[in-house]
Amino acid sequence: MAMFCFSIDHAPPTFGDRHTFRFRIGNAYVESMSVPEAAIAYEEKFLLEMALEAGFRTAEMSIGGPEDWQHMLLCRK
Description:
The chain contains one helix and six strands, in the order ββββαββ. It is mainly beta. The protein has one domain. It is globular, with a radius of gyration of 13 Å. The N and C termini lie close together (8 Å).
């Protein structure tokens, strides 16, 4: 599985300007409480744990360069 996502541990270059992820809903950091699904970030540890609990053998974050908005969660069965 390859899934692009925001990681609060590796904030996008727009962090602090366009993205703040200042609201918290459970394990999610959201940009807007009125439209929480618009931009969601998770802690890397949470993403990796959930992937392993879902049955993937391996899970890792592929961290791109500082210009990358989202990073990729890579998982293998």
